[in-house]
Amino acid sequence: MRKAIWMFAATMMLFGAVSAGQVAAQMGAKDEPKKEEPKKEEVKKLDLPWTVEECKKGMKKGQSVKYKSVTKAAGNETVAYMVQEILEVSDKGYKAKTTNLNAEGQPEGDATEEEKTWDAMFEGLEFTSADTKVTEEKIKVAGGEFECKVYTQTKAEEGSKSTNTFYFIKNKPGHIAKVTVKADYGGMEVSYEMELVESKE
Questions:
Q1: R_g of the chain, CA atoms, integer Å
Q2: pTM score
Q3: Does the 52-200 domain belong in CATH 2.40.360.20?
Q4: Which pLDDT tens digit goes with each residue over 2-29?
């Protein structure tokens, strides 16, 4: 519906501009000089603070991380935990096991195992100069205090808007200290926060 209204308004504006131009031409008015359109900045894909090679060197069998997540929506709050353990590391990639826990720390469902190639390690983490601002910040979470590269990404789609903030630990390739998401879906606000509570080398 909103899209239809926008298209109708744009069409009316276009016809209005054409009619005004025709009238001006008939009255012998001089053409106005064309204004130069501002140059659009080139959109660039942003690199993460560390490379895949750096992550590859730092990842070892037996490492694990534990995260706490808090989701708030429609007046409800849900607390959960996730533990991820590295089972295997090879030249091709790695294998990890993920266990989900409830607020009391009890397992929920069966643990899942997933294999990933190094090339696919950062799937889903895509940032560009058009939607992301990069800063630096020292933050303290349950799992420690870390110097982070902070990527704040704002996305807007029809009927929704979200701001996602990722705190990448500068000296620990592949590790994230915290993630926050604030979204508005047509007037319904949702927030999500995930922070590192424990890591084992």
A1: 25
A2: 0.77
A3: yes
A4: 332 223 223 233 333 333 333 333 334 4
